[in-house]
Each structure stands twice: as structure tokens, then as C-alpha cells.
Amino acid sequence: MARALGVSATTVSRALKDHYSIGKSTIRKVKKKAAEMGYEPNAIASSLRKKKTNAIGVIVSHINRPFISSLISGIEAVCSRYGYNVIITQSLDSYKKEREDVKTMFNSRVDGLIVSLAAETDRYEHFDPFIKNNYPLVFADRVSFEIDTDKVLVDNFDAAYMATNHLIGQGYRRIGHLAGVQQRHMYQKRLEGYLTALRDHRMPVDENVIHYSKLSYEDGINGAETLLNRDLRPDAIFASNDTSAIGFMQYAEECGYSIPDEIGVVGFNNDPVSSIIRPQLTTIDHPAVEIGKKAAEIVLDKVSGKSQTQIPQTISFKTKLLIRNSSVKGSPRGGSNAS
Question: What pTM value is reported for the model?
């Protein structure tokens, strides 16, 4: 192109990048000639030269879950603004798959990595290549404090305490819990918040009304089948996510229980379906987009050198309780009550 236009290769290179030092007429001529000659920038060659790929890796559990899609949306919004592409894989809550995904991301030379940990993950040596080579690594939502890196999450203890306290305030006296896998910090804290609220109100703690699972819709159904067939069944449930809460509700109603008059239900995440079902589901509003944005900002600050701190930070967002009809005795089956 330089020979054809009678200019230097440096001029062509700068014109293709709209460099301020090149006149507009020259830029137009260079781009016209590039189109005629079928020229396309080689992103791989450019990344090798710059030792940067302008790509951020993202590993999540299940892409099709509303919370995860919102988390990714927040990450992508920030990365796109700064000219970075996002490469996404899903672990399907498998430790083995997550380990393979981390290796793939490292071999692809992503400039940084954001991870929401798989439910099965209880070892973290697969992140060592990122840690040892000083690649930015951020855990988002599903975090572990066993590895020294940046983390962005919500105050899960406070959210669970708030949800359980609400049920107690509505007059429910035997409150059960659909708990997540306990190697995940978030589910540990939700269980702790639930138990602390019961103890603070001098209410009995009964392991027989706590059901542990991976919190799928089917797990919610299984939890309802188990708990509602006990001699002393719960009269309310705090579920660690909306998906399992809805499974619980649907099984309970099929068995003839009235929600919320006989059984109150509170979920977690504020998935879109929570405001569509009847009765609408009381839930914790989980700021997924904001978590994704903050995680991306931390990674990009480190990639760009804007952040000089070597001390990993933990960012914790507050949540709020959205009170709807699934947990307010005597309420109609329609819309929301308050928030």
C-alpha cells in the first residue's frame, strides 16, 4: 500500500489507526486503497507485537442463568468501552471443567481473568499460572478467601439475615432454609445469616428444616418434597436463590398449600421470573450488573497500570429486600406489596 500510494509504511500504519498526525485526506486515500487491496488488520500479529491480546477472560457457572447473564452484561459494558473483547466459558459447576477453562484462558494469553467459581471447586491450584505471572485475576460473586486475589461480592450474611428477619416479622415460626453447597463462601454466609436471625429472636434452630443442594429448580422441588413431608414441616422457607424457591413454591401449591398463608417463601437474586409468577416472589435484589462492572474495572485498571496496589481488595455491595406477596400473610396473589 505504501508503494502504491507513494508514502512511507509508517504513514500507512498511522492512517489506518486514524492517528492525529495524519491528515484526513491521506487517511481517506489509505483506507480506500486498503479496501481495494482487501487488507484487514491481523489482530494476532498485533497482539504478539504488543504482548497484549485486548481480551479479558470470563468463566462462569451457567451462562443461561439470569444472574449470570446480567453479570456478564456488566463486564462486557466496561470492557467494550475500553476496547477490550470478552471471551466467555462456562464451567457447568464442574471443578474439572473450570480447571480446563482456566488453562485455555491462560494459553490464549488473555490480559486478565474474571471468575465466578464452580459449585464443586474446593482446590485452587489451577489459578497458579495467573497468580505467579501477575496476570489480573478477580473473583466475582462466587469467591473464595483461600486464594489471595481481588474479590467482588455482596454482603451475603446481611442479606440472609434481612430475609429471615422479614419472615419472623410476618409471624412465621418454623422457618426452613434451602441452602447451597457449603464450600462456596456465599452460601456459607447465607446460612450463617439465617441461623443468626433465628438465634437473635430466640427461635429454635432445627437441622431437619435445612436442605442442602446445588439450588436448581429440581433441587427446589426435591427440597419441598423432603421438608413438607416431615412430621414438623416448616411454615416458611428462605431459599438461597430464586430458582430453587420457585421449584419449592410450585411443589407446595400442587400439594394444596396456600402461599403465603400456610407457607411463606423468600428467594435470592431478583430473577425476572420472580415478579411474573403468582404469587410474586419476595426476594433479595442482587446487583449483578454492578458486580460485573466493578470486577471489569479492577481488571482493566491493573492491565493498564492505572492501579499500582499489590494488595488484593474485597469489594462488598449491599443488597435490599423486595417484599412481594409470597411472604406477606393475607396478601392477594397479584402484585408487589412494598420494597
Answer: 0.80
